[in-house]
Amino acid sequence: xxxxxxxxxxxxxxxxxxxxxxxxxxxxxxxxxxxxxxxxxxxxxxxxxxxxxxxxxxxxxxxxxxxxxxxxxxxxxxxxxxxxxxxxxxxxxxxxxxxxxxxxxxxxxxxxxxxxxxxxxxxxxxxxxxxxxxxxxx
Length: 138
Hints:
Layout: H1 3-47, H2 52-75, H3 82-105, H4 111-120, H5 123-134
Helix pairs in contact: 1-2, 1-4, 2-3, 3-4, 3-5
């Protein structure tokens, strides 16, 4: 193998490894934020008379903190653009709530199972947007 091809292969392997590490950290932060989201929403549903959408909003607001600081300090390890993060988080929440509405209105699922399902549908989209726009260049 010629030196330049060998260098490109090694470089590609290094880039792939770093991306895999970043994806793993994203997954860990995402699991923590998702767990906070569904546990808080579940607790709100259990111990109050809030509707499923209000419980979902409260869960999102608490999990937002875990997500922002986790992605800033663990996943991407850079400051990022907090206004962009808020925009992407709100987009993720709208996507989550749209799925939740479809489940509840369509009578597919309700309550905590609907919140869990809708929350688990969003992470792949979030990673791409966070990686490409909010924390670009890291």
